[in-house]
Structures are given as structure tokens and as C-alpha cells.
Amino acid sequence: MIDSHCHLADEVFAADLAAVVERARAAGLERALVILAAGDEKEAAQALRVEQLWPDVRFAVGVHPHQAQAFADRPERAAEVVRTQLHATPAGRAIGEIGLDYHYDYSPPDVQKQVFRAQVRLARELDRPVVIHTREADEDTLAILREEGPVRGVLHCFTGTPDLASAGLALGFYISLAGIVTFPKAVELRETARGVPVDRLLVETDSPFLAPVPNRGKRNEPAQVALVVAALAALHGLAPADLAARTKANFHTLFRP
């Protein structure tokens, strides 16, 4: 199995990082894609610890829409920061998470869009996949991907509509499901996930957030991606091992580790 999106460099894992990695390996994880906030020195330092403990991890670096306001004066500088950090991160494989989030008012939408565009352009230049975060901004997210593409990528922690899934698939994107798919009230999401072709699915934890049932409300970690795999396998009528193998292959196709 592969956890295609987690935040192991977050400070919440600092105290017991070695145990978290050990549990991930014991659960059968080959690797994980660790998301890094571009320019965050604390996360970059923690990333070195993660890689020492788990050499097979890979990294994505990006400016999250919540942090876009830091580049309001010169949005293209966000891409420069990402470029520099990716160059200094040999295990870096992707640009992300990037995108748009209109739910919170951390960054003005216009600034978010400019920073997002700059990073998508960088992804095209470097031929790197993008890890997309979109919340209450789907039309604008899709518009920018269409206008600035073609680019490879994944809609991470997918909770959207069937229309969004169809649009993402039409762009050639993968759809990644997290622990939310196990929540009792996520009936519509499960129906949408059932309609995503298995060869376009990824699985993730988005840890430390969104722990799947029966651990909902607790700190999440990569080992728990097995619960997401089991849930999606049931939806697609597959054995968990088969779903795990398929999503692992999809990860390798997209991120070329």
C-alpha cells in the first residue's frame, strides 16, 4: 500500500515519529507522499528526519491556498520558492498541495488564483504532477487547470460531486479518497467513489487529519490508510489486497517514484 498524501513533517508527529513510521511499515506500506509547505523551515527539518527513518518516502512541495497571501505582492515568487525547495529535495516528486479554498478567508480569492496559476505553470515547465486542494472553488479550480494545462495530477482528499469527479477524470487526473469515505454520513461520496475507475483511484490519510472509522476523532497516521483501502475495495467488489495493488500501481504511474 501507499499513502498518497500525508503530513508526516507536521510538528504533531515530532515526539513519536519513529513509532509512526514503524506502524506504517508494519501495516504493509511501501511508502508515502509527504506534503511540505514551501518555505517552512520547521517542516523541512522534520522532513529530513522522516526520510532518515523511512528512505522510501517521497515529497511534494507547494504553497497551499491558505498561505497564498504571503505572496500577494508578487504571486510568481511562490513558484520560485517551490522551485528552489524542490531542487534541494532529491525525493521531491510533485508540486502541492496547491489550489483554491474559498471556505476560509485566509487569502483573497484573486491572490489564490494568481499563486495557483504560477505553480501550475511551474509544474508544466518541470513536468511534475500537481496535488490539488479545492474547497468551495471547484469551477475556478477546473478553469485554471484547463487554461494552464495540460498537467498531470490528483484531486486530493476528494469529497466533491460526481460532476467534479467526471471533470477531473476528463482532465486525466486521479481521484484520491481519504478517511471521509468511511464516515457513516458519507453516502453520496461512496456512490461517487464507486463510479471512479479503479485505474484512476489513489488512497490517502491526509494525516494527522480525518482518521477513518473506527478511529474517527483521533490523530490519523499513514498506517490507517489500510482502512481506506478496505472501504474502497468493498465499494468496487475487490479484495483489499487487489485494491491496494491497483492503487499502488496508480501511484507509481503518476508520481514516477
The CA-CA distance between the termini, in Å, is 14 Å
Q: Helix fraction?
A: 40-55%
- How many DSSP H or I helices? 9
Low-pLDDT runs of 5+ residues are: none
Task: Tell me the total number of β-strands.
Answer: 8
Task: Let me know the largest β-sheet.
Answer: 8 strands, parallel
Strand order of the largest sheet: 1-2-3-4-5-6-7-8
Label the structural class.
Answer: alpha/beta
Net shape: globular
| CATH architectural arrangement | Alpha-Beta Barrel
What would you note in describing this structure?
By secondary structure, the protein is of the alpha/beta class. The protein has one domain: Metal-dependent hydrolases (TIM Barrel, Alpha-Beta Barrel), CATH 3.20.20.140. 42% of the residues lie in helices and 17% in strands. It has nine helices and eight strands. The protein has helices at 17-26, 41-53, 76-87, 109-126, 138-148, 162-170, 187-194, 225-236, 240-255; strands at 2-6, 31-37, 58-62, 92-101, 130-135, 153-155, 174-177, 201-203. Strands 1-2-3-4-5-6-7-8 form an eight-stranded parallel sheet. α2 links the parallel β2 and β3 (58-62). α8 (225-236) packs across α9 (240-255). The longest helix is centred in the middle third of the chain and has 18 residues, at 109-126. It is globular. The mean pLDDT is 97.
